[in-house]
Design goal:
The protein is an alpha+beta fold. It has 38 helices and 50 strands.
Length: 1203
């Protein structure tokens, strides 16, 4: 490379001597020389090509040449001159993030994108100093970016070293995540991202939401699983140069021919009519709304600032409030295709974090990540599960698609894709991400959409399999971060729940039986039944379905009845499932048989007489449940086991109890769907029955040759079912006992699947739980702790542990060595060895008094056995075309699906939480987002228009109520919208005929795949692609200024409305609406490609504002326009009436201690307020806390006026 160094010296001397001298003088305040690749290429093509193909060698040569060339310019006494050479302006084509692959590895590339998140700067050890623990000789080693390796051997021949961090050299590093620009993605293509690695003078140069062009070297880093390195590697860009890009609306290439067509179209007298017809032509009517949306796409004049520096918003915000089926989603979807740059998000995913920005904990470095949201990145979407995915919903194991009620579903738009959502009411198993605590939380929504593409299938070591869309988030077992499914590889770990929450309520028989079962009533119960107006059958029986809907159900469900179908009735001693009954059900499930028919049922159990203890246990349970002896008889049997004839004496137990068969079927059929409904004691007894019938507990010995010692494995196994669905459900039941099992599928030799439990902690948890009920568990002898082998449930995440280990390593080294923790601490710090809970507990015991409270709390969270790491054994992809589903879990945003924790999904704007909606105020009005968390204070730009859609609160508009009272959006957020359009579904035969004809016409052309006739209403008057370019051209090149005549027109409109308000004693318009009119007028001028806002533009904007004022702001009581209807949620007339009623009550309180409502109604009527309004006002004041009711029919003020 000496020849290359020489060529670079010649290049620096002839082409960049001035830049080199400036760098030499400015060092170390300035550390880098920016090298224009085009200049290098002009000078020497071979040198430039070598820089691209072998950047490491050529950059090293360039740095050496730079040091040599700068010697003549360095000030005297300069030390440590080690500048960087930062290459930029590569002539090679820009590479998209999604196409970065193996062909770019270790080569120089240029990539553009938008920054999604960024970490705080952290010190990275650049040169490590090691001290031999024997001779104290010191050695220096260069470190890799992601790992530190000690020297192999010291000069004394030993290999034990201590890292001297205080003597090592550090430099600042920062990681960021860059994803594809949204304007470069179309259709269902998911956004892809790449990690950026920035060092030294490149840190703190960029922020989330900024567009950047990055020049760097694509490298790989190993992805570590619980046992070491994986065969799959993660890519990252080692950044050499950063260049911020100006955030244009869109960079579309417009040819000279297209520019001429754009100018020609702008002069068309019918231009605005054509634009209107090009906005969602498949939707009939709504001309004013379409015109407003068109103007929103063009936007007002940007970059306007008041003399005091305050920026004036130029983007208009529009809200559509509509009845179901009025094409809101279609409009949003079409705009997402039409706008040059557009985001479409749903309300529930559009939280304050998702839409704006957030600061999140970086589990890898322990620092904080600034993360941009949808309004910053202009990115949104939805991720989903396969319909067969099993979820635990209200302790019932069911397919996620079973929860979706298509009849009650509503349509929404997410990322331009139609999504159906429906309400669900129930709780799901979940995890609190911050504390890793198993919790049970409500799920409120379910969503589904049609998906055609690849699904990622992940097979886990536990036996579960999960099928999800590629971007569905799972909790990574290494970093505890939410990671898309497509990024997981074989050998990775995902977090799952080890502990499912307890069920404490009784399992009542009435809840286990179908409606057609009959209840036999006693004479007293018959009287109760007839007393509530019901009839008793001839046999004094009543259908259970009738009782469920009656007033006596809650009382009777706790009583013991004779129950049956039409023919045979039987009774249990208890009205609910007892542990004894649950034991019998588990025993029969493991090694018995139940046949259930319409007229009769049969229950069989066969046990060898050698199992005397189990038989005695069965007799006890049978007596407790039925109140009679167990029906048994001894017989001789002969069978063939593993090819050998086996003879034995057996006990055959047989019963014809319809009731037992029905309860057994409820808990064991349909893939054990209802098994998790069993309460804690019943669950223990059920599993105890399974253990005693077809399970085992044993200790297996082995010898570890490497450690030269014997070990013992505590082992338990169940052989229960050949059905995979049943076995996986049984695994979930074991987790209720804090026990982790593994499913081993059936083989050709063994037709029954196996449930295995091998960890000492899990076997111990199982035995302790079922010992009071199980014969085998009570007799089990478990391995001694110090010889037993640990299992998968004891492994914990390595990244957070590495952070903790780094803190512990700073403590007394000799004590760590003395306790045998030093080598382990080093391994944990560098993530070369997985850590178990027991080892972390030892470290905590040693260092507890020296660690801060937050670290101790973090360790305790990691030690909890609420979670475990499930290893991925296989990753594959499947083609899929159909519906996919997801749940919305407001509190924790995750739930258990197919035994694995997954993230949740989306909804609509009016379903957003109040906290999340309030976070949009600043983003919409000031077009910035502020983040202040963890000591970080920053702002992001959100210069975007918002087109939002929502439904009325009660599904449809009430024509007699105020609009602000019909949708759950706060008045403060409503006031941020420039225009609000109500979309009412009004029954009108003439209009309905036109709508139907319009829809049928569109479907006709779509079905026949014919091009519609020229001028047809279902095709856009201006082609979509050309209109997109027109909008981008106008926004980029036109910045209209208000003319005097337009200003006068807007001012006169405002003054006229204010005068009208003064006469009518209300507020028809406020100053805020002037700015909205100006934005619309500027957009109109921009659409005409006019540099000046003319009279016609002002009139067009005013006409739209007047339309909205009449449709939305009209006070139904007075017929007057009143903006208070939206601004504060109450009309001026209603506020005045409320004040009048309060004044009446205060006046009456001077005479009476408690004011009768009737007296208020009378005086209010004298003041012109009718009784209906008075009643509503008093009800509102009671709800608001202004009044309270000391007794029925009377009210009092909550506060007294001061005399």
């Amino acid at each position: 490379m000496e020849e290359v160094v020489s060529v670079f010296e010649q290049f620096f001397g002839s082409c960049m001597q001035h830049q080199v001298s400036e760098l030499a003088v400015a060092f170390p305040q300035r550390k880098s020389l920016e090298l224009d690749f085009s200049e290098l290429e002009k000078y020497n093509v071979e040198l430039a090509d070598g820089m691209v193909e072998n950047p490491d060698e050529y950059l090293n040569a360039a740095r050496r040449a730079l040091v040599n060339s700068a010697q003549a310019f360095l000030p005297p006494g300069t030390k440590g001159f080690a500048p960087y050479v930062r290459v930029y302006n590569l002539r090679y084509p820009l590479v998209s993030v999604q196409y970065l692959g193996s062909e770019h590895l270790n080569k120089l590339v240029k990539v553009d994108g938008v920054i999604a998140w960024i970490t705080q700067i952290s010190p990275r050890m650049h040169t490590a100093v090691w001290e031999c623990l024997h001779c104290e000789h010191r050695l220096k080693t260069a470190t890799e970016k992601h790992s530190i390796k000690p020297p192999r051997v010291c000069q004394c021949g030993r290999s034990n070293f201590k890292l001297l961090e205080e003597s090592s050299d550090f430099l600042n590093v920062q990681r960021a995540n860059m994803q594809d620009l949204v304007e470069n993605l179309r259709g269902n293509v998911p956004t892809t991202n790449v990690e950026l690695w920035m060092e030294d003078d490149l840190v703190n140069r960029i922020a989330p939401g900024e567009k950047v062009c990055v020049t760097g070297i694509l490298r790989l880093r190993p992805v570590k699983d619980g046992k070491g390195k994986s065969s799959v590697y993660a890519k990252f860009l080692d950044v050499l140069h950063l260049e911020k890009k100006e955030e244009d609306f869109e960079e579309l290439e417009v040819t000279a021919e297209e520019e001429a067509k754009i100018i020609e179209l702008s002069r068309d007298p019918q231009f605005f009519q054509k634009v209107n017809k090009s906005v969602a032509p498949g939707v009939f009517g709504y001309d004013e709304m379409k015109q407003a949306i068109a103007l929103q796409l063009f936007g007002g004049t940007p970059h306007k600032f008041l003399p005091d520096g305050q920026r004036i918003r130029s983007d208009a915000h529009i809200l559509l409030i509509g009845d179901p089926g009025t094409s809101k989603s279609t409009l949003l979807s079409y705009v997402s295709r039409l706008a040059p740059k557009c985001i479409t998000v749903g309300g529930k995913s559009a939280s304050s974090v998702g839409l704006t920005a957030s600061a999140e904990k970086d589990e890898v470095s322990g620092g904080w990540i600034l993360k941009a949201g949808a309004m910053v990145l202009a990115n949104g979407g939805m991720v989903c599960l396969h319909p067969d995915s099993k979820v635990v919903f209200d302790n019932e194991i069911c397919g996620v698609s079973e929860l979706f009620d298509a009849e009650r579903a509503q349509s929404a738009s997410v990322g331009g894709v139609k999504v159906e959502t429906a309400v669900v009411e129930g709780k799901v198993a979940s995890i609190a991400h911050s504390s890793l605590e198993s919790i049970c939380v409500p799920a409120t929504k379910i969503a589904r959409k049609h998906y055609c593409g690849k699904l990622v299938r992940l097979d886990f070591d536990s036996g579960f399999s999960l099928r999800v869309t590629p971007d569905h988030l799972l909790l990574d077992g290494n970093s505890l971060a939410w990671v898309p499914a497509r990024r997981f590889a074989e050998g990775d770990f995902s977090v799952s729940l080890l502990k499912l929450n307890a069920v404490n309520k009784d399992n009542l028989l009435f809840d286990c039986l179908p409606d057609d079962w009959r209840v036999c009533l006693s004479a007293e119960e018959s009287k109760e039944w007839t007393a509530i107006g019901k009839r008793v059958g001839a046999a004094k029986t009543v259908a259970l379905g009738e009782i469920r809907g009656s007033s006596v159900f809650e009382k009777w469900r706790n009583k013991s009845f004779a129950l049956g179908k039409k023919f045979k009735f039987s009774r249990f001693f208890s009205s609910c499932v007892t542990p004894e009954l649950a034991y019998l059900i588990g025993f029969v499930y493991g090694d018995g048989c139940v046949k259930q028919g319409k007229r009769r049922s049969a229950v069989f159990i066969i046990q060898s007489t050698k199992h005397a203890a189990q038989l005695n246990r069965l007799r006890e349970c049978w007596q407790s449940v039925f109140g009679s002896k167990m029906p048994e008889r001894t017989r001789f049997s002969q069978s063939v086991i593993r090819g050998k004839a086996v003879k034995s004496d057996c006990v055959r137990i047989q019963s014809s109890s319809h009731l037992f068969a029905a309860v057994y079927s409820y808990f064991t059929s349909l893939g054990l769907k209802h098994l998790l409904e069993l309460n804690e004691e019943n669950m223990k007894a059920f599993i105890a029955g399974c253990m005693d019938s077809d399970g085992c507990i044993s200790n297996k010995k082995g010898f570890n040759k490497k450690a030269n010692k014997e070990y013992v494995v505590s082992h338990s196994e169940f052989l229960l079912s050949a059905k995979e669905e049943d076995n996986l459900a049984f695994l979930l039941a074991l987790r209720r006992l804090d026990c982790l099992g593994k499913y081993v599928p059936a083989t050709a030799q063994s037709k029954v699947g196996r449930i295995r439990i091998t960890s000492r902690e899990d076997v111990s948890a199982l035995v302790d739980a079922i010992k009071p009920y199980s014969v085998k568990a009570s007799q089990a002898f478990l391995a001694v702790k110090n010889t037993a082998v640990r299992g998968a449930s004891g492994v914990i995440p390595s990244a957070p542990v590495a952070e903790i280990a780094r803190q512990i390593a700073k403590l007394n080294t000799s004590k760590l060595v003395e306790r045998g923790l030093w080598s382990r601490t080093w391994e944990y710090r560098h993530e070369t060895r997985p850590l178990s809970r027991s080892n972390l507990a030892k470290m905590l015991e040693f260092a507890k008094t020296s660690l801060d409270e937050a670290t101790v709390q973090k360790i305790n969270c990691l030690l909890a056995r609420d979670y475990f790491l499930d290893k991925i054994t296989r990753v594959s992809q499947e083609d899929y075309d159909g519906y996919v589903y997801d749940l919305y879990v407001p509190k924790s945003h995750n739930f258990l699906a197919d035994g694995v924790l997954v993230h949740n999904c989306v909804d609509e704007l009016d379903k957003m939480d109040d906290e999340d909606r309030s976070a949009l105020h600043q983003a919409m009005e000031q077009q910035i987002v502020s983040v202040a968390k963890a000591g970080m204070i920053t702002q992001f730009q959100t210069r975007t228009s918002v087109l939002a859609a929502a439904n009325p609160k009660h599904g449809r508009f009430d024509p007699n109520a105020l609009p602000a009272q019909q949708f759950e959006i706060s008045p403060t957020l409503l006031s941020r919208f420039d225009l609000i359009f109500p979309i009412r579904d009004v029954i009108d035969e003439s209009n309905d005929r036109k709508i139907a004809a319009h829809i049928l016409l569109g479907h006709k052309y779509a079905a026949e795949k014919q091009k519609p006739e020229e001028g047809s209403a279902v095709i856009p008057a201006i082609p979509v692609d050309f209109l997109r370019k027109y909008i981008a051209y106008a926004r980029k090149n036109i910045a209209p200024i208000l003319s005097q005549e337009a200003s006068d027109k807007i001012q006169e409109f405002y003054l006229e409305m204010r005068r009208m308000g003064k006469k009518q004693n209300n507020f028809p318009i406020t100053a805020r609406y002037i700015e909205g009119i100006i934005r619309l007028a500027e957009a109109s001028a921009k659409a005409r490609l006019s540099p000046v806002v003319g009279m016609q533009d002002a009139e067009r904007a005013i006409a739209l504002q007047q339309y909205v004022l009449k449709e939305v702001f009209m006070d139904k009581e007075t017929g007057k326009i009143d903006t208070d209807v939206i601004n504060i949620g109450q009309s001026k007339s209603r506020i005045d009436k409320m004040r009048t009623v309060l004044a009446i009550i205060r006046g009456l309180e001077k005479k009476f201690d408690q004011v009768a409502k009737e007296d208020v109604y009378k005086e209010a009527a004298d003041a012109g307020i009718d009784r209906t309004n008075s009643e509503r006002i008093i009800d509102d004041l009671l709800r608001q806390g202004e009044l309270f009711s000391p007794k029925a029919g009377y009210v009092k003020n909550t506060t007294r006026d001061k005399d």
